[in-house]
Design goal:
Blueprint: E1 4-8, H1 12-24, E2 28-32, H2 35-44, E3 49-53, H3 61-71, E4 76-80, H4 83-92, E5 98-101, H5 106-124, E6 133-136, E7 139-142, E8 147-150, E9 153-155, H6 159-170, E10 176-177, H7 178-185, H8 195-208, E11 218-221, E12 225-228
Parallel strand pairs: 1-2, 1-3, 3-4, 4-5
Antiparallel strand pairs: 6-7, 7-8, 8-9, 10-12, 11-12
Helix pairs in contact: 1-5, 2-3, 6-8, 7-8
Length: 230
């Protein structure tokens, strides 16, 4: 089945060049030149990879990447004309899979697209015969399908919420600091803003705990961090 790619790029000549090279390599390609409509397409459409320019009219690439990452694991390659932007993307840890600075060779872009699609296929591939399930006192986590049930009722989780819950559940009774969790789940060193860990823990508790004031799954170890109780 032909892989489908969405290019969100306001410089039409660049977008068309990328499209030509990708189509020659056997991909189906769509282009959107506006950030707002591009974001809408990315969230609602079925695509296998996104090529995302940073500077866009409407909504910028940072915001698109952030919104897409909340709900999808689809590979994202971000493109910028400025080297400093690439450093900024890395620093913010927005979840992009790759970064390219303009100008770049279209053939290099195609090679990177193929590499990320192959990696993603391996990641979600059905190599395991059975789904990997974690079950703890009414909480059921299906790691393979990335689904969660609490006492038989399914709850929806964002990508990072799921990753954080699964990591803690797989490592019960171990106390992790916020810095450690930030490093493990966001795959980067803490850059001073670890409040996002607290926010995600709060959201997870709202979805899995009967009483968030007296959590039975994820407990706070004051002055240290968090522990998943079994």
């Amino acid at each position: 089945m032909m892989k489908k790619i969405l290019i969100i790029e306001d410089e039409e000549s660049i977008a068309e060049l990328e499209k030509d090279y990708l189509e020659l390599s056997g991909f189906e390609v769509e282009i959107d030149n506006d950030g707002e409509t591009g974001l809408s397409k990315a969230l609602q459409g079925e695509y296998d990879l996104f090529i995302l320019d940073l500077m866009l009219p409407g909504v910028d690439g940072f915001e698109i990447c952030r919104k897409v990452r909340e709900v999808k694991n689809t590979p994202i390659i971000m493109v910028s004309a400025k080297k400093e932007d690439i450093d900024k993307i890395r620093g913010l840890g927005l979840g992009a899979d790759d970064y390219m600075t303009k100008p770049f060779s279209p053939s290099e872009m195609v090679a990177r697209v193929k590499a990320h699609l192959a990696r993603y296929e391996r990641l979600i591939g059905s190599g395991m015969p059975d789904n990997e399930i974690i079950e703890i006192r009414g909480l059921k986590i299906d790691k393979t399908a990335r689904r969660v049930w609490v006492n038989g009722e399914e709850r929806n989780f964002t990508t990072k919420e799921f990753d954080l819950l699964t990591f803690l559940a797989q490592n019960p009774n171990h106390v992790y600091t916020k810095e450690e969790l930030f490093s493990k789940i966001w795959d980067m060193e803490s850059i001073g803003d670890i409040a996002t860990v607290t926010v995600h823990i709060k959201k997870i508790r709202e979805k899995i705990e009967f009483n968030t004031a007296k959590p039975q799954y994820i407990e706070t170890i004051w002055g240290v961090g968090y522990r998943f109780k079994v």
